[in-house]
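Q: What would this chain look like folded?
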Amino acid sequence: MRLGLFGGTFDPVHFGHLLLAEQCREQCGLDEVWFLPAGAPPHKRDTIISDGRNRAEMLELAIAGHRAFAVNRMELERAGTTFTIETLRHLHEEDPSRELYFIVGADSLADLPTWREPRQIARLATIVAVNRGINSAVENTRHAQLSAVREALGTVVADRVRFVTMPGIGLSATDIRRRVRADSSIRYMTPRAVEQYIAEHRLYRSDTGDSTSTDSRG
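A: My prediction, written as structure tokens:
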């Protein structure tokens, strides 16, 4: 089984996340893609993130009807800081027959050497780096990203990186939260069910003190 793992805060999930996951599923021949809403990611210690239950429930609404997509709450249920290597080890030990594909934005490749046990991450999973947009600049950036990984972590890790390209979409969770606080429309930025959930639970409104995170991946 080829299993794609797509982690992030998803605060909230939007159509960019969903298209990214679908492109990875198709281009990498994945049997399933699991969305892993983060609990306490190490790079967000100084930011406020919405309650994990809300973020997971919005994901469930967003992927409803897609038989290859699922939400896994294991990182939300883990106490303390969430590290990628711990998630990969748990899933590998749970079922060693799975072929794991860890999905990240291609811009995150530059940070890979700073992650906990990056070589072990590459040993346990193929790293799927997603570039947004299709043009020569993306190709040049791809080569630079891969060269940086090779220089920092070696050829073995670089050989475990696979690139996926998706259409460029100018959506971000940060902008959606800003628009909600400004009482502006978010129609067609996120699935209608998620939009309604945000309204019903009064998420991201200035009078509720909700998330102020600036993570572009959501």
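The mean pLDDT is 89.
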